[in-house]
Amino acid sequence: MKHFATVQKVLGLLLMVFSVTMLPPVVVALFYGDGGGMPFVYAFLVLLGAGLLIWLPVARVREDLRLRDGFLVVVLFWVALGFAGAVPFLLSPEPDLSATDAVFESLSGLTTTGATVILGIDELPHSVLWYRQQLQWLGGMGIIVLAVAVLPMLGVGGMQLYRAEMPGPMKDAKLTPRITETAKSLWLIYIWLTVACGLAYWAAGMSPFNAIGHAFSTVAIGGFSTHDASIGYYDSTLIEMVAVVFMLLSGASFALHFVALRRLDIRAYAKDSEFRFYILLLAATTGIVTVALFYTNTYIFWDEAFIQGLFQVVSIGTTTGFTTAQFYTWPPFIEITLLFLAFVGGCAGSTGGGIKVIRLLLLIKQGVREIGRLIHPNAQLPVRVGDKVVNHRVIDAVWGFFSLYVATFVIMYLALAATGLDLLTSFSAVAACMNNLGPGLATVGAHYFDMHDPGIWILCFAMLLGRLEIFTVLVLLTPAFWRR
């Protein structure tokens, strides 16, 4: 029971931390005079009160979190966060959302998926627009990592929360000796990258409000925009190229950024096998899509085909989900190529979704090794990434992740199809949500407004699975987890 009390204590504290995020939209509402501030005031009071009610009965409990407690805290908190984040949407007259749609919009923001059920985004109050973008920014690095960084007084197994929250197959690596310093380092890089992105958008022609909002979404690899037409609203090649640069940087490992900054050596990127493969994959796909766009007469000029192809490849490949064109109306070969690219996603330790580049790289190397073993049965052929031999347990974990990923994807695909949706919509919707991409194909290309409630809840689960990388959620469903 003590361990559950510790979990309850952390959940209460984290919910109180999250309640504070309701205050910036109030300031925005006052600044722009849009009259949308009170729903956020009420939401702040509700969430603060709920956090206190959860925390007070166990405030004096003193016990470290175990690893399994960390998984439980992370999953319970993200579920609670999805519902907590929906409160302002429910209380605000604009947008007028049902409870189901409000939870979907909240989870979509927090998991940096970027799928939306809202039509008429351009007409929303500034406070609501800010809140949507802010949800993605907080979810990008993870509010639990933020709590570990700024609330060392938690004193309850920060490393367990960090390991359960951070994406990627090699979670034990710390950038600094102390876990709180690691979390602070990641958040400092995240903040400075956001500031640089916002200034670049402003210099390229966005208003300060939109520059900040799109910087939140870009660095979080989110995809929410303050306009229905997304980045295409601006019809500016300069703004598109700013987005491309910062999507590429945000889709790379933040640990790699840390190493490059600490050493003041840009060659750290060139030496990293995952980063090289990440750039190669996006570059090759850009070439294929550009040629396909030109020769299918989707665009009649090479430069236009290249710019549109580059933007959509980087946006979808990093699972950001910004758009400058209706790519879901492009020739089927291009559509499915882009959707499959989203399955790869960003690098491990980035804010991107998907399977992660390092896992694909390890799967390829393992496949090559098995072919080598057929030719030379007695040979010792280790899997290497750069000059390091990869531990066999990491390879096993990657194969385990991949098999579970495929199995859960198929189950949710069949479940969504069973609700009556056509196969392409079902396939792309699950792919877009599970990979935290956002826009899909067919009827979910532009928005999810027409999705029925059963489908919405299936996709909410898909977004949560994708954000927490499957294992973190599914481990709670095993009997062994609940045994002492």
Automatic annotation (TrEMBL):
It is found in: Cell inner membrane. Coiled coil: none annotated. The lineage of its organism: Bacteria, Pseudomonadati, Pseudomonadota, Gammaproteobacteria, Chromatiales. Signal peptide: none annotated. Keywords: Cell inner membrane, Cell membrane, Ion transport, Membrane, Potassium, Potassium transport, Transmembrane, Transmembrane helix, Transport. Its main location: membrane. Pfam families: TrkH. The chain crosses the membrane at residues 39-58, 70-91, 137-164, 185-204, 238-256, 277-296, 338-364, 394-416, 456-482. This is Trk system potassium uptake protein. Belongs to the TrkH potassium transport family. The keyword Nucleus does not apply. It comes from Thiohalocapsa halophila.
